[in-house]
Amino acid sequence: MKGIFIYYKKINYSNLSGIDKKVLWQLEAFRENGIDCELVILDKNKESFFQTLMDQFLVSIPYGNRYPEWKYSEKYNNIDFIYFRRPTCFTVHMLKVFSEIKENNPKVKTILEIPTYPYDKEMKVKLRYFPLFIKDIYNRSKLHQIIDRIAVQNDIDTLFSIPTINFTNGIKVDDIKIRQPLEQNDSNQINLCAVASLNPWQGYERVIQGIFNYYENNGKRNIVLHLVGDGSERQHYERLVKDYKLENSVLFYGSLFGEDLNKVYNICDLALDAFGRYKTENSMSTSLKSREYLAKGIPIVSGCKVDLLEDNSPYYLEFPSDSSSIDMNKIVKFYDEIYGNGESKLSVAEKIRKYAYKVCDVSTTMKDVVEYIKN
């Protein structure tokens, strides 16, 4: 059994992003199940600033072949399957390449992973992405001619007239160190962390507004939000923090990796998932960060339903999926219920991590995909 995993960016193995890690974990899951799978990167060498601008223009026009650049290769002739994530948008060049693959290798199984669905609102969140959305709409109507299965996290049987395989975002729990909480933290201070790309659907303005409201209403606890990551919303968040004079309550780190990231996890006793999914019409979060939080052993607060967590979980607090500010009094109460009964923070972390092994280890989350490939 031999296949190819197509990915669209070079992997920096010294500073792995969350998606990079997921791809490598999926590859490992295939190989551990006796499937020989090669990683193929559709990305060019580093280019000049001018060439990057030109590529951004070319990808936006109807027949532009960029991000990624699709080309046929003879290596597709002698494989059993192709697994690939949804690209920036579906293009005529992608359709052409897969049509040629099917023509030369009729038995090959083609599996498209769509990690988040629906995704249309994500593509329309910025005006400059709208041409990509139009291209995607047009070309995905033809996907059923070249794609055999779509791996999706939603409970649906078909998508774009293609049968689905249901899977769950997974991680390799053993690759993520359990947090080593600072047991002697000031009991008056509550440290929250969010480790995420700062895109509109994260919605952390709701949390910043909530901290401001809490202090305006004479809140007594010292709440500190540690934001780890970069993205289009960072400047917006920074302006809010400045306007609300919350510079000591909201800290920006940029992207962190390795031990630098572990230090933040060790400081923080609650972690934030997404609070802006209502902007993209997603009712549920299936984020990789929620899995990492579980593996770290840190309770989760979210602004929408998290797929792996039950409403009655003692380590999960859910707020409505809308634009309302977050009530920090509820977060204070949640924190005290978890950590105010004398149980050590490390004991809490161990319980949460044990749950992570059951629900989101990649050895179980990819089972249905592996079964389809092998059978």
Topology summary:
Elements lengths: L1 E6 L10 H15 L3 E6 L7 H12 L20 E5 L6 H13 L4 E6 L5 H4 L6 H11 L8 E4 L5 E2 L2 E5 L22 E7 L9 H12 L5 E7 L5 H10 L6 E5 L3 H10 L2 E3 L11 E2 L2 H9 L3 E3 L2 E2 L9 E3 L9 H12 L5 H15 L2 H4 L1 H8 L1
Parallel strand pairs: 1-2, 1-3, 3-4, 4-5, 5-7, 8-9, 8-11, 9-10, 11-13, 12-14, 13-15
Antiparallel strand pairs: 6-7
Pfam family, one: Glycos_transf_1
Keywords: Glycosyltransferase, Transferase
InterPro entries: Glyco_trans_1
What does this structure look like?
By secondary structure, the chain is of the alpha/beta class. It folds into 2 domains: 2-170 and 362-374, Rossmann fold (3-Layer(aba) Sandwich), CATH 3.40.50; 174-359, Glycogen Phosphorylase B (Rossmann fold). It is 36% helix and 18% strand. It has helices at residues 18-32, 49-60, 92-104, 120-123, 130-140, 205-216, 234-243, 258-267, 288-296, 328-339, 345-359, 362-365, 367-374, and strands spanning 2-7, 36-41, 81-85, 109-114, 149-152, 158-159, 162-166, 189-195, 222-228, 250-254, 270-272, 284-285, 300-302, 305-306, 316-318. The strands form 3 sheets. Strands 2-1-3-4-5-7-6 form a 7-stranded mixed beta sheet. It is globular. The model has no long low-confidence stretch (mean pLDDT 93). This is Glycosyl transferase. InterPro entries: Glyco_trans_1.
Distance between the termini: 10 Å
pLDDT averaged residue by residue: 93
What's the CATH architecture of the largest domain?
3-Layer(aba) Sandwich
How many strand units? 15
Can you identify the CATH class of the largest domain? Alpha Beta
Q: List the helices and strands in order.
A: EHEHEHEHHEEEEHEHEHEEHEEEHHHH
Count of DSSP-assigned helices: 13
Structural class from helices and strands?
alpha/beta
Enumerate the strands of the largest sheet in spatial order, edge to edge or round the barrel.
2-1-3-4-5-7-6
Question: How large is the radius of gyration?
Answer: 22 Å
Proportion of helical residues: 25-40%
Which fold name fills CATH's third level, the topology of the largest domain?
A: Rossmann fold
Shape: globular
- How many separate structural domains? 2
What can be said about the biggest beta sheet?
A: 7 strands, mixed
What's the CATH superfamily of the largest domain, by name? Glycogen Phosphorylase B
Uncertain ranges:
none
**Residues in β-strands, percent:** 15-25%
GO molecular function, one term: glycosyltransferase activity
InterPro entries: Glyco_trans_1
Organism: Paraliobacillus quinghaiensis
Keywords: Glycosyltransferase, Transferase
